[in-house]
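Q: Is it fine to ask for two folds in a single conversation?
A: Yes, each is treated on its own. Send the first.
Q: Here.
A: Result:
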Amino acid sequence: MADKTTPPKPEVGEISAVGRGDLFGGYIAELAQPSDPLLRSIGGDMSVYEKVQRDEQVQTTLQQRRRAVTSLDWSVEPGGDAPIDKAAANDLKEQLDALSWDRITDKMLWGIFYGYAVAELLYEIDGNRVRLSDIRVRDRKRFRFGHDRSLRLLTGARPEGIVMPDRKFWTFTAGGDNDDEVYGRGLAYWLYWPVYLKRNGVKFWAIVLEKFGQPTTIGKYDASATPEDRQRLLSAIRAAATDVGIIIPKGMEIEFLEAQRRAGGDHHIFAEYMDAAITKVVLSQTMTTEDGSSRSQAEVHLDVRDDVVESDADLACESFNAGPARWLSEWNFPGAIPPRVWRLTDNPEDLNTVAERDKKLHEMGYQSTPARVAETYGPGYERVNAPTDPGPAVVPDDAEATFAEGADRDTADDLADQLDVVAAPAMDDMIDQIRELVGDVSDLQELADRLIEIYPDLDDGALAEVMRAGLTVADLSGRAEVSDG
């Protein structure tokens, strides 16, 4: 018999959160300390990572990564369909437009390098509305997190930090392999050693260039030379390194020893290897920054970089949506579903390609709705001289007689107009066959291939009969005009 005992209710709240006294917490007083061993070794001082940032390859790749995000268009989407939801979205977009959202985003994205970012929200009261007068990204090393995840501002008088008020700061963390790491784990952690090794490798490279860039000077003196003679020879050797010409006493010799290249002198290869390592850390690939890759390889690597860019955009937007966007909505539009800010990371279709496709579909009997035209090409379009439906046309039993009745119309345009009407049913039959095919294919290329396959089987008998009759009438009409003339 099954046990019908009601299971115990779940434990509410956290019981494994890191706190003071935890063996692995690493807390000093009220402040949580980073788990990053480099930062812990210097008390959480970010200066070691600021040196990493000065490397030209780090700076270049980070700029590429940040600019890839800020170059994307952005939008503010309503949280729902109610008028108040749309009003909250319009109000937020208006505020962000006034604050230069791209500039703010670019500075906040440095949090991906350091592990976390902190921005202060400056408010102003406009009637009964709370508005953002500015968003200022602060130096993260001025702030720490408490064991309760509260944001604290460090001061000389309060080394344990002053707890900042709620809804005043926008923060996010990046990296880290667990939620106990309140400071995240920035790219700088993985970039430190490649930059350190590269910097020292270049330093040794400069020493090698200085040492082996010119021959070593050797002076020879006679065994009977006095100390003054030896000093005179040494001065001449030093002068030989810089002067065009020198003089030495007779009996002394100066020779030049050419340096021989030895293994281990490929310092530039080592530096390039470290640059590639830096690029992989920042962009997760190398082929969008360096020459020598094939087009197919570069396209694959570009897709990888696009994934990184989309992740960065989502990180910045999601943290803003969970903080400032929600707070402003709750203050200014109570009851509204908070709006969301997003970067448009999907690559839009080329409009020329879309227009060509729409044209082909129209020729096949399909017409875009006004809503789709506005969505694809933007607002501001309306139909001009929209065609009217002539209604179904009936092909008479005696097509030649029908054309003959209108033979008194002596222009080719008149005949062409009649032919359009009479041929419409036959054309519709062929279009119906193609329309059925369109519903069975997944893309235009497959449609083109299938059309070639079914072309020999298309039933064009009715259309051929109408065309035959039309050509006969046109020929007779032309003969009649010549006779009358």
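Q: Second one now.
A: Result:
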Amino acid sequence: MKKILQYVPGYNVGGIESFTYEVNRQLRNKYSFLYIVENDIEDSILKKISNLNAQIIKIPNLTKEGVFKHLKAICNIFNQNKIDVVHVHDCDIRFFVMLIAKIKKVKTRIYHIHSSETLGSFIQKGIKKIGIRLNLLLSNYHFACSIQA
């Protein structure tokens, strides 16, 4: 069974979470799902995803725990799993999952932008735009939820 890695740094209740859950629910008999998250997940959401036989791995938060711990955790996930598809959602400065996927020669690398807004100071917006560009360069499929996105 092919394995799809879904990367959503914060997995709570929202549009991205509803979308990934529905994709998982519809395709659970054809694909195995692995979620990478950086923040704690509510027990009810954890149970809901686990009921679909999906695996959830919490990795160190890039901005709170540092780039080296974050990168090491991502590398470990790719080294321990044969990933067939990577689907990264709305990540701006977080491009390491896509970078490692490209290095590991994952053939299907999807970057999915859900929002047209880039928030923060002038410098933060600039850094985020660079991250988005890197994700776009490292991926080979691009999805957006609107023309603006």
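Q: Anything structural to flag on that second result?
A: Two points. Strands lie at 2-7, 31-37, 55-58, 85-89, 108-113, 141-144. The two ends are 32 Å apart (CA to CA).
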